[in-house]
Write a structure and sequence with these properties.
Distance between the termini: 37 Å
Radius of gyration: 14 Å
Helix content: 25-40%
Number of strands: 5
Structural class: alpha/beta
Shape: globular
Oligomer: single chain
Strand content: 15-25%
Length: 133
């Protein structure tokens, strides 16, 4: 198993899942995206084509605006089973977000952090979900 597939599997991607992707840009980690599609067997979808995907994959950079607003809108589109992976540039890259900013925005949006990981040397990930009801 390649290192990138191992990361995708560790993040909970499974065959048949529907993954909605937001914030994809030219700086996104294309090998990671390809592995997500390979593991799930489905193409990444964009926009708001599905009301409650299995996984939301959100690429976010410091200049992208208000992270709390983005997470609030994502929370509204999530089902209890949905996981959100917030992908942010690593500290060595332009657009890096301070970890405290992510924690604050997560708490204010009503989501719960369930994991952290490194996608590649360029991107970090924070796993989020809706709180237990």
């Amino acid at each position: 198993m390649s290192a990138s597939i191992a990361v995708v599997v560790r993040f909970g991607f499974r065959p048949g899942q529907v993954v909605r992707e937001l914030g994809h840009g030219t700086d996104a980690d294309e090998p990671f995206r390809a592995e997500v599609e390979a593991v799930t067997g489905t193409a990444l979808t964009g926009g708001s084509t599905l009301s409650a995907p299995d996984i939301l994959l959100v690429w976010w950079r410091a200049a992208d605006g208000d992270l709390e607003d983005r997470l609030l809108s994502c929370a509204e589109a999530m089902a209890p089973r949905t996981r959100l992976w917030l992908l942010t540039p690593a500290a060595v890259r332009p657009g890096h977000l301070d970890g405290h900013r992510v924690v604050r925005a997560t708490a204010r949006s009503g989501l719960v952090i369930v994991g952290r990981g490194e996608v590649s040397g360029d991107w970090n990930a924070v796993g989020l979900r809706l709180p237990d009801r």
